[in-house]
Amino acid sequence: MRTIYLNAGTMVHFADTDSIDEKQLFGPGKAIIVEGQSIANILDSQEVIQEYTLPEDTSQFQHDEVHVHDLQGQAIVPGLIDGHTHLLWAGDRSKEVAWRQEGKSYAQISEMGGGIGHTVSQTRKASTDQLLELGYLRLRDALRTGTTHLEAKTGYGLTTESELRLLEIAAKLNHIEHTPTIESTWMGAHDIPKEVHRDAYIESLHSEQLPAVLEQGLARSVDVFCEPGWFSLEESEDILRAGRQGGLAMRMHIDEFNDGGGGELAAELGVETADHAYHTPMKARINMKEAGVNTGFLPGTPYAMGDSWPDLAPLLEHEIPFTLASDFNPNCYTLSLPFMCSLMVQRCGLHPLSALAAVTVNAARATQHPSGMVHGQLMEGAVANFNIVDGQNWESMMLRPSSSPFSGTVLNGHYISQ
Ligand code: NIG
Ligand code: FE
């Protein structure tokens, strides 16, 4: 079965070069031919009309093997990729807003019984069916704003059994059709559970949790909350190295509240992505770049927590490679990547094309589509994941932080109306 998406407006494909400029765009008039799950070709619409002898009114075209979808000049962008989410948890932390307004820090809120520890107890209490339902609704929400693939961390179980359960739930969700695909990250090192001594917990991560996660075989990556007050540089390094030894890709949470040296460790280990990174010094950023480490900015976190925005000028000057992701979690209750783009474009002065690259082609380098196919780019042989913008200008997706900027999404070759 082929579907021809005819008469596209401007198409941002990110297929040609590494530079983020007009070479990444096709002008209006292209057609995307989708066959099964992948893009068979991108051609001029006129060529396709002749080849398939399409009538002027394509709604009159009837064929068993070929469908035609006239885009009528709507712009096209690749499917969006969210490289950092805490997808699966239960409960509610909205009381913490008032505590923050009273001046309580993230660490103080955790000591008061809120924070990650609170969500851990709510998540452990939730049934598997409740977590499946929450996960499904969240995936639908992400799809509504154009996400076609996302990374999902565990880290609200913090026992071997409950961490494995979260990985199983993510794997079940990944088999549901017409929702974004998921890749899982084991984040047993998200916090120290209240009922266990710190040293005993860290020991059990090595002796019990990680071996069980590797045997289960559902996680692609390992992540650690490397931050003063959570996991030290030494503890983080040990866990990451052990994960790598077991074949996992490495990810890190670094320098969210302070410069804890996480950037230098990320560079030394050559992790795939080091995220938050708000307080990372420039020297560490340059070392990360040289080591091929992505920086994952999570603008929803400063938005929700009332922190300041990153200063992009030195990053752009040194061409530091970065992605944008949602960091969906109980404090940052949004899976909208257009909203993340809007924050960076409208609050931090990021160019719209750089924002789009950060949630597509760049994000693809720090994630893996389960099919093994290219994603984040529109070209022959890539997975057929793309968004149809509700309008002629692709840039309008940067200016729609609430409603979906898309009229439709093609997800693994299937058209879904938004
Ligand atoms: O990336 N900082 C660590 N983890 C999450 C937040 C977790 C939570 O507060 O529940 C984050 O922001
Ligand atoms: Fe996070």
CATH level-two architecture of the largest domain: Alpha-Beta Barrel
Uncertain parts = none
Amount of helix: 25-40%
Small molecules (ligands, ions, cofactors) in the structure = N-(iminomethyl)-L-glutamic acid, fe (iii) ion
Overall SS class? alpha/beta
Q: Which descriptor suits the 3D outline?
A: globular
Count every helix, treating DSSP H or I runs of 4 or more residues as helices.
15
> How can the largest sheet be summarized?
8 strands, parallel
Number of domains: 2
Straight-line distance between termini:
22 Å
Hey, roughly how much beta strand do the residues contain?
15-25%
Oligomer: single chain
Give Rg in angstroms: 22 Å
CATH topology type of the largest domain: TIM Barrel
CATH first level of the largest domain: Alpha Beta
Q: Taking strands numbered 1, 2, ... along the chain, how are they ordered across the largest sheet?
A: 8-9-10-11-12-13-14-15
Mean of all residue-level pLDDT scores: 97
CATH superfamily of the largest domain: Metal-dependent hydrolases
| Overall number of strands | 18
Structural overview:
The chain is of the alpha/beta class and 418 residues long. It folds into two domains: 2-78 and 373-417, Urease, subunit C, domain 1 (Roll); 80-364, TIM Barrel, CATH 3.20.20. Helices cover 35% and strands 21% of the residues. The chain has helices at 45-51, 95-101, 106-111, 115-125, 128-144, 160-174, 198-216, 233-245, 262-269, 282-290, 300-305, 313-317, 337-348, 352-358, 361-365; strands spanning 2-6, 11-12, 25-26, 30-35, 38-44, 66-70, 76-78, 80-82, 147-153, 181-189, 219-226, 249-254, 273-276, 294-297, 322-324, 386-389, 406-411, 414-417. The strands form four sheets. An eight-stranded parallel β-sheet has the order 8-9-10-11-12-13-14-15. A four-stranded mixed β-sheet has the order 5-4-1-6. A four-stranded antiparallel β-sheet has the order 7-16-17-18, with no helix packed on it. Helix 5 (128-144) crosses helix 6. The longest helix has 19 residues, at 198-216. It is globular. The model has no long low-confidence stretch (mean pLDDT 97).
